[in-house]
Write a structure and sequence with these properties.
By secondary structure, the chain is mostly helical. Helices cover about 70% and strands about 0% of the residues. Strand 1 and strand 2 (about 200) form a beta hairpin.
């Protein structure tokens, strides 16, 4: 009697790295490294430099991918007439919720442009910051290219680490009047203080940090390679030091909310929790190293905001650093002695409740001092917890008037706005009142959501929120199956938070849309792998 031979099942063929995927990955590589550093004439053309860089590079990608699709020859096996042919799928059956959200968002921008009083300005965004229909169309094109053609290799995120470190290092040097590119002699005194690195003013640097730095923190948690973890942690440290020099509330707000959300998220995993506190320790350490760096220049700098001084100059910074270092050490010790320990689900729930109550308390305090007690002198806290015209460097003035503008708008304008990036014309009746705060005009509400409400209406804002919220929802849903979603959605969350007090533009916003696309690409790949099993 012969024994049956057991044969191993054939190995699943390794997916080929196609030319389309390579082109998309190289596109991301350039966007993560060269795009943030590109400029031609100091800061005078930097917005247009980044705008045309993104437009041209994305255009090249779209054309190249289209030509490959049109000219590629695919060998097909001869069809067997006896076999039943699968029913062809309609195009709309291949589109996800996120795809439709982008199509609707672009469609509303088209309608808004056609209905605008100045369609050409709305098309190009010349009244504002080039956020016209053209840029929105290229965001949509980049989204569809990345979601269909991206293939994950970690070198792309390592490239982001090194690219961002250069931006951060330049920001730190500029903060102490060290000017490697010789930009400052071309600027006046105020411009020298306001502009930094190769990004632009300090608010835009904060916006960039809120995209790149959260990704580095998340990558340091999820990467399996020790060397790469060190690179991500160093990039995180440089990012926090650069944030200290940015003197911008938007960056602090975005990073604070991000750190709280991720602390709650990772608090049920000891391995990720210890790495989270390690990244926080590194951030606080680099803030203190920035203090030592300052001593080398006799503390001659552009200055630090009072909140940033807590981390850099104050003894409180040392206390926070020591506390995080001790917690990190304890967590590593526990994990060493009892590996794979499970933390109770009550921990993240309790943390979420505590932080939620703190948020409610802060909102309550703001409402009280803004609506009930409007007379008490709040000193330096006036600009934070009392909402009025001077709140947030007179952002309150612009937000309140923006609500008035929307209220006075026609029904069609309420639906579709006054045109993409046409905030300037809508806000022009209030320029005279704005001048008493030192600004003769403005082309942005310094709140992205209000800006979209005015320029592309309630339908445009809702479609934009569908994109952002849909991205976050999908990422949370599939993060356990694909940890890379944790890294990509971190940029989306942090940017979306800082956008409450900042503005969209072609300098950092393209990177935000790229990470939205990467989230959807990872979701699509995860779904495909589940279907194939």
């Amino acid at each position: 009697m012969t024994s049956a031979k057991h044969k191993n099942p054939p190995a699943k063929p390794k997916e080929k790295y196609s030319v389309q995927q390579a082109l998309t990955n190289y596109y991301l590589l350039v966007m993560f490294t060269l795009f943030p550093l590109f400029f031609t004439d100091a800061y005078f053309n930097i917005r247009h430099d980044k705008y045309y860089f993104f437009i041209i590079l994305t255009g090249i990608l779209v054309i190249a991918e289209f030509l490959i699709i049109m000219t590629a020859s695919v060998d097909k096996p001869p069809e067997d007439s006896k076999l039943e042919k699968p029913k062809p799928k309609h195009l709309y059956e291949e589109l996800s919720f996120m795809d439709w959200a982008f199509i609707v968002f672009l469609g509303i921008n088209v309608i808004s442009t056609l209905l605008s009083a100045n369609p050409l300005d709305a098309l190009l965004g010349t009244q504002g910051r080039n956020n016209g229909l053209v840029l929105m169309a290229f965001y949509t094109a980049a989204y569809f290219m990345i979601t269909r053609c991206f293939k994950y290799f970690e070198y792309i995120f390592v490239a982001l680490a090194f690219g961002s470190m250069i931006v951060y290092a330049l920001a730190i040097l500029n903060a102490f009047y060290v000017d490697p590119f010789g930009m400052f002699p071309l600027l006046n005194e105020q411009q020298t203080i306001d502009f930094t690195s190769t990004i632009g003013n300090k608010n835009l640097l904060s916006s960039y940090i809120c995209i790149a730095m959260p990704v580095m923190i998340a990558m340091s948690l999820i990467t399996k390679k020790t060397l790469l973890r060190v690179i991500y942690l160093v990039a995180t440290g440089f990012g926090f030091a650069a944030l200290m020099t940015a003197d911008s509330d938007s960056g602090i707000l975005g990073m604070a909310v991000f750190m709280i959300i991720y602390l709650v998220w990772f608090s049920n995993s000891l391995v990720r929790l210890k790495r989270f506190f390690l990244s926080a320790t590194v951030m606080l350490l680099f803030a203190k190293l920035l203090r030592l760096f300052s001593l080398c220049f006799d503390d001659k700098s552009k200055g630090f905001d009072k909140f940033q001084e807590i981390f850099v100059f104050s003894g409180i910074g040392w206390i926070l650093f020591a506390a995080c270092a001790v917690i990190t050490g304890i967590l590593y010790l526990i994990d060493y002695k009892k590996p794979n320990i499970t933390i109770s689900k009550a921990v993240p729930i309790a943390l979420a409740v505590v932080f939620g109550l703190c948020a409610v308390a802060m909102i309550g305090i703001m409402v009280y001092f803004s609506c009930i007690d409007t007379k008490t002198d709040l000193g330096s806290f006036e600009r934070i917890i009392r909402f009025n015209d001077i709140w947030g460097t007179h952002r309150g003035f612009m937000w309140i008037r923006s609500i008035w503008i929307f209220g006075d708008a026609s029904f069609i304008e309420k639906l579709f706005g006054v045109g993409p990036d046409m905030f300037y014309s809508a806000f022009s009746p209030y320029f005279d009142d704005l001048s008493k705060y030192g600004d003769s005009s403005t082309n942005a509400a310094h709140n992205e959501y209000l800006n979209y409400l005015i320029t592309i209406g309630i339908t445009g804002l809702l479609s934009y929120l569908a994109i952002v919220c849909g991205t976050i929802k999908n990422a949370v849903k599939y993060a356990k199956e694909n940890p890379m979603l944790i890294a990509c959605v971190s940029a989306v969350i942090c940017y979306a938070v800082q956008a409450v007090v900042n503005l969209y533009q072609p300098i950092t916003t393209p990177l935000f849309f790229i990470f939205i696309a990467l989230c959807e690409a990872f979701v699509r790949n995860t779904k495909a792998e589940k279907t194939a099993v």
